[in-house]
Amino acid sequence: MSQNQATPLELSTPEKIRDALHNALGELGAVEQCALLDYPDYFNLGDHLIGLATVFYFTDVLKTKINYIASLNDFSEELMERQVGKAPIILQGGGNLGDIWSHHQKFREQIIAKYRDRPIIIMPQCIYFSCPENLNKAAAIFNAHPNLTLFTRDNYSYELACKHFSNCQVIKAPDMIFQMVGMPFPSFKFNPRSPILYLCRQDSELNPTLSPDALEIPNLVVQDWVDSTNWIYRGRGRFGGLKEWYWNLPGVVLLVREGWQRGGLANPLEWRLRHRWEHSHPYVDKFNAFKNPFPLRFSWSLMHTGVYQLSQSRLVITNRLHGHLLCLLLGIPNILLPNSYYKNESFYKTWTSQIPFSRFVKEPSQVPTAIQELLTSS
Q1: How far apart are CA 295 and CA 301, in angstroms?
Q2: One GO molecular-function annotation for this sequence (predicted)?
Q3: What is the per-residue pLDDT across 74-103, written as a single tens digit (0 to 9) for each?
């Protein structure tokens, strides 16, 4: 089963894309309570933005009670059953439906295979399988579920899902981050002399033909999402897996991460602004309604760090889809580059190609021209 949706002709502002998101998600109808699974417990800011936006949509728009939130690492069957019973299961959206990020896909398939007694909703995802056998396996599991809704966030994924997941309700929708359009973000003073940032991912989705050196842009600042690869999260991170006994002492992980790695010693201005954001922003009261607000509060904290990072540049070049999307929400001129497969290009063509302060560029030689166009028009 599929819902054949034509992309709206007018998508020239983030607000119009948010409206398209709400129109697509309106197919869900009423959801009184639910469980939200595969919530991020790692340092990919894009997934934290998706998670927060999903929570905001269900609680603010649908007035749903999310009575259980879990990552794939801390999921408890017993706890979910006790807190939500047979309520629908929401699976986090993003770009990990496929065989690149196999641990997410394995968890998703296990949940869908086990819980056929309740509705399951997969929030907007890009789909990519490099191995046909893996796609066929996923299709068999998905199609065996009697009430599975799959939101896809680009035309390519939508067509693939309609072809292979024939027993699912397939709906095309933008990324969940557009739920945050209009939300009060922190505002930083803009400096037109600030550098150009290349927000460059270095993982398995990197397209090597668009490395920083290939762009040949003078004075280019190259970063990924802050230096989160070295941060520690609860009991995991660097330092040999944190197996030493002293990492289990109360408050030690928090002290090291927030006091040193992210704290005043590393970036005192961002640290002060972030703490104000974490405690005085009107949205933080929303988290008090959850049994375990820590994951949401941590996502909220990471979002400030990402907003601060992007706001230090007059233009952002990125191969991270959510670098592009967060720039759209902040009004920052940006250039989106391809990742290792069709995700970035297909999403751009499906939803964001009409945004006037953004470009998609496939060749390194085209980047300087795009920079000049965006800086001249801004």
Answers
A1: 10
A2: transferase activity
A3: 999 999 999 999 999 999 999 999 999 999
